[in-house]
């Protein structure tokens, strides 16, 4: 879920940009290390970023019958590891802002934090935990993608609540408001993202 | 993609991307500085007019691109003054109205600045600007490949959907959402496989052209960049001055 | 089937692509049942667009598509009914195979018809048999050669048992023996009553194989006639961006010089070569020309 | 360059793919400098594998690659030296274009040679000029047609100014006028001293265009000879999955019957047709046969 261009106050926009820049720098370092060992992955990451962008621009069937845009970050985190997903997610989010006017440049930092940092790490963690608990691959992948998506949405709600605290109820009330509004769309999206990720991972596994 | 088509067709396609970026950045800074709603409205209007009149971006295109973010904005601003009260019941809270108006107009101004940039500048021009600004080369390679492969993979996706439709793949939600999901899943899996195959093919093709480990391209030249940058700086300074007027 | 109507028919169909690109302009074209049709035209004449209309993937901006003389509706159910009867094989196999295994891909359309598993399995076997890939059901698609992938695409449509089979540039990228075996497969289908329409820009192949030729130029069908009647029409062929098929041109020259009898005209260059070989050596020429 | 050595040479090269697939088996093949070479073989005979060896993308399991008679090493520097001299254009443009704009993509290989920006810019202009895309430098690659993308691929290699140009199935997917203009471009390159090798499975085109034909069958080069010498060798052509080019077969029949003089044999069917048309009407046949 993207925060639109310009919606965050300047202090928040700059703050999140600084936070995400640190993660991006770390992700780039990890990726450069990886590329030194596997130079051929440079092309792979580039094509994978295009695939993630494509998925995010697609209208996919969702269980409620409406259409939704998956983020694809869960899938990427499972395939390439969460650290590599920070630069890839940066590219995808930047392209979404520039090519689709989806998200924005001033809110890029906040969106990177929720979608390219929290989402992938949660998805990856959930997958490892589920695998350790002996769940089947499909169930683990579904849980990872689904919860990664929900974590992204929770983070965005928090970011918005922090930027626009309710004068009466404060941040908590504001969080309830944003989380409540976006739950309507995000829960079905999380479920369809989970389903899609299972299908794609199964297809890759048989390949 | 509407933005991309408009950018290639825009009259400012040949203007140096650095000039357009400077103007957009000035627009964003001005929106952040300004406090009065009227000033913010003017700051939203000016980049929009520049895109429509200066770069000849069709109004329909501008509105079509802005529709999705404006929808988000409307939803977010309209609900800002509504919230759970002390007793947990949802109620109208007048104190949030000015916050919502200010946030909404500011977002509008920043959005207008961004759209003024993206609707006149094809993304590859921005990439060559970023290259000159010494962006990490891994990131540039990712972006260059991503941009090119975007169109290749989307074509593969569209063709796949068409081939599936020809074989009754999408009967619709009511008639068989299982079948529709199955088609989507098969196709997504297929395109995911293509990621590996195409990456390998690109690697071989790059090697055949003496690939040295980074993707280097000759950036497009913008011979009148200096003059255009100066003009953009001037126009940007006017926007910022307008905004600073609110603070004094 | 006792009907005089063509099995499929485009009547005055206009098509404009969303980006304003050339589509069709008043295209009228009828496919006689159980015949071998070739749609011939230069790149960009609208060959693929015609095929997409015949399968209901595109919807005419004006004019209509008729099936057995009845206008085709564009409701979901009507389209499903049309596509059940009219199968379409696209040009590039890479873009239409999406399953990991051959059998899975071939079963896709048959499953979508709502058939039970046993019937689908039987149809998949029969379709793979027909294209000569009997033992390939379990193979991974990406390990196949280009020609094999092309045959898998055809099998995927055959498994739906269509009455009409449309193929976009089926011969492109195949070497000569593979082209011959594909033409033989199509002949077997026609013998079973299937109507086959294929597009090509190889005028020599078109006239060697087709019963009926449809000439497309700038989105309009400028001629539809049995191959023998069109072969000598250099004017029409040129309007469609083609030359007279070499077999006919050479035969005309040789007939004018009395080397070969004026009729029957051989349909293909190998047939012309055969006709020449069948002539006894030099002496007959003297008799012929006398 | 005063050398008798072929510019590129495979000497007894074996190649086995990691998945065990067919590669090359004792393939020996030499490319004479400044000539038009065609590598002819059925699908799967190993044509693409040969090209990848000649450009150093694959490394022989046995045997060696020689450049100007010298064995080529596989160190990074040696490979860079080889690829500077030997350019390779792949079949599918979508799999080898990675830059967003035409000019950027064409500059890629030239920049990798370590040239300065001004030289690269001049070479990009010259290469785009050569393929007839002079004003396309700023266009987005994804807005081009298939034929234009194919020409961008060629320009990207031409900008490296190779001595040897290898092209994998360059004619595939092009219609007749585009094929003719590509053949003319290759002829201009040969006239400037570039050695050109292309693969095809179109035997008629091969014999119409090539100086030298190399026949590939099951990973082995079974014959290398000037086109005129191979044209009548039905045995060798058949072993490579091909028939005798129709122009030669027809000419042989016509010459045997005295319709056309036995030499020179026309290289292509249009040339044969021209030769026939140039004959005055029937009477000459009597004279010829007399």
Automatic annotation (TrEMBL), chain B:
Pfam families xrefs: CbiQ (PF02361)
Compartments, record wording: Membrane
Organism of this sequence: Pseudoduganella albidiflava
Family of this protein: Belongs to the CbiQ family.
Coiled-coil features, chain-numbered ranges: none
GO biological process: cobalt ion transport
InterPro entries: ABC/ECF_trnsptr_transmembrane (IPR003339), Cobalt_transport_CbiQ (IPR052770)
GO cellular component: ATP-binding cassette (ABC) transporter complex
Record keywords: Membrane, Transmembrane, Transmembrane helix
Entry membrane topology: Multi-pass membrane protein
Membrane-crossing segments per the record: 21-50, 62-83, 95-118, 229-245
Entry keyword Membrane: yes
Identification of the protein by name: Cobalt ECF transporter T component CbiQ
UniProt main location, coarse: membrane
UniProtKB/TrEMBL annotation, chains C, D:
Keywords: ATP-binding, Cell membrane, Membrane, Nucleotide-binding, Translocase, Transport
Signal sequence extent: none
Membrane-crossing residue ranges in chain numbering: none
Topology within the bilayer: Peripheral membrane protein
UniProt keyword Transcription, yes or no: no
Top-level taxon of the source organism: Bacteria
A single MF term (Gene Ontology): ATP binding
Record function comment: Part of an ABC transporter complex. Responsible for energy coupling to the transport system.
Name by which UniProt lists this protein: ABC transporter ATP-binding protein
């Amino acid at each position: 879920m993207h925060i639109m261009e310009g919606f965050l106050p300047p202090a928040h926009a700059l703050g999140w940009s600084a936070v995400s820049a640190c993660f991006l720098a770390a992700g780039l370092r990890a990726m450069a290390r990886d590329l030194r060992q596997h130079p051929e992955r440079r092309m792979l990451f580039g094509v994978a970023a295009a695939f993630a962008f494509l998925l995010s621009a697609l209208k996919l069937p969702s269980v409620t019958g409406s259409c939704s845009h998956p983020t694809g970050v869960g899938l990427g985190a499972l395939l390439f590891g969460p650290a590599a997903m920070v630069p890839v997610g940066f590219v995808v989010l930047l392209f979404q802002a520039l090519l689709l006017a989806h998200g924005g440049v001033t809110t890029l930092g906040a969106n990177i934090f929720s979608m390219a940092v929290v989402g992938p790490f949660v998805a990856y963690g959930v997958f490892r935990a589920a695998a350790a608990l002996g769940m089947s691959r499909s169930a683990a992948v579904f849980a990872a993608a689904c919860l990664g998506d929900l974590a992204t949405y929770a983070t965005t709600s928090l970011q918005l609540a922090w930027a626009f605290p309710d004068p009466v109820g404060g941040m908590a009330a504001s969080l309830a408001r944003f989380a409540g509004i976006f739950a309507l769309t995000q829960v079905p999206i999380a479920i369809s993202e989970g389903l899609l990720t299972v299908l794609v991972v199964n297809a890759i596994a048989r390949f | 993609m509407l933005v991309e088509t408009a950018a290639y067709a825009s009259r400012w396609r040949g203007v140096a991307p650095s000039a357009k970026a400077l103007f957009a950045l000035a627009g964003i800074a001005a929106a952040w500085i300004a406090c009065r709603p009227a000033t913010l409205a003017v700051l939203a209007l000016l980049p929009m007019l520049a895109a429509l009149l200066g770069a000849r971006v069709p109004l329909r295109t501008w509105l079509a691109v802005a529709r999705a973010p404006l929808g988000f904005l409307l939803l977010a601003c309209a609900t800002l003054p509504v919230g759970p009260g002390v007793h947990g019941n949802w109620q109208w809270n007048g104190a949030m109205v000015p916050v919502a108006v200010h946030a909404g107009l500011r977002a509008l101004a920043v959005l207008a600045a961004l759209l003024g940039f993206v609707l006149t500048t094809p993304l590859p021009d921005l990439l060559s600007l970023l290259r000159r600004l010494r962006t990490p080369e891994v990131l540039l390679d990712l972006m260059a490949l991503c941009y090119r492969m975007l169109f290749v993979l989307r074509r593969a996706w569209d063709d796949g959907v068409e081939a599936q439709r020809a074989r009754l793949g999408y009967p619709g939600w009511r008639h068989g959402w299982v079948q529709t999901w199955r088609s989507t899943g098969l196709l997504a899996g297929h395109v995911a496989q293509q990621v590996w195959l195409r990456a390998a093919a690109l690697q071989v093709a790059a090697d055949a052209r003496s690939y040295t480990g980074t993707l280097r391209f000759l950036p497009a030249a913008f011979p009148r960049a200096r003059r255009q940058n100066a003009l953009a700086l001037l126009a940007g300074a006017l926007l910022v001055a307008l905004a600073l007027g609110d603070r004094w | 089937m006792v009907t005089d109507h063509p099995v499929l028919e485009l009547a005055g169909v206009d098509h404009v692509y969303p980006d304003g690109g050339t589509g069709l302009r008043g295209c009228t074209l009828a496919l006689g049942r159980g015949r071998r049709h070739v749609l011939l035209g230069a790149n960009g004449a609208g060959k693929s667009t015609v095929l997409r209309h015949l399968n209901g993937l595109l919807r005419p901006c004006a004019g209509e598509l008729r099936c057995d003389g009845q206008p085709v509706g564009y409701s979901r159910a009507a389209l499903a009914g049309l596509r059940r009867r009219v199968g379409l094989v696209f040009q590039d196999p890479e873009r239409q195979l999406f399953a990991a295994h051959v059998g899975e891909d071939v079963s896709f359309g048959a499953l979508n018809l709502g058939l039970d598993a046993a019937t689908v399995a039987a149809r998949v076997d029969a379709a793979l048999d027909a294209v000569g890939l009997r033992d390939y059901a379990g193979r991974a698609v990406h390990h196949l050669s280009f020609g094999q992938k092309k045959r898998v695409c055809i099998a995927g449509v055959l498994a739906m048992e269509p009455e009409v089979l449309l193929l976009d540039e089926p011969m492109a990228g195949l070497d000569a023996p593979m082209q011959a075996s594909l033409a033989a497969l199509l002949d077997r289908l026609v013998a079973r009553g299937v109507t086959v329409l294929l597009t090509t820009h190889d005028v020599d192949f078109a006239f060697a194989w087709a019963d009926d030729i449809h000439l497309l130029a700038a989105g309009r069908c400028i001629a539809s006639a049995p191959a023998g009647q069109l072969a000598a029409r250099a004017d029409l062929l040129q309007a469609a961006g083609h030359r007279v098929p070499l077999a006919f041109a050479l035969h005309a020259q040789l007939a004018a010089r009395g080397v070969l009898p004026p009729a029957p005209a051989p349909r293909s260059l190998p047939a012309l070569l055969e006709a020449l070989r069948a002539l006894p050596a030099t002496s007959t020429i003297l008799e012929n020309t006398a």
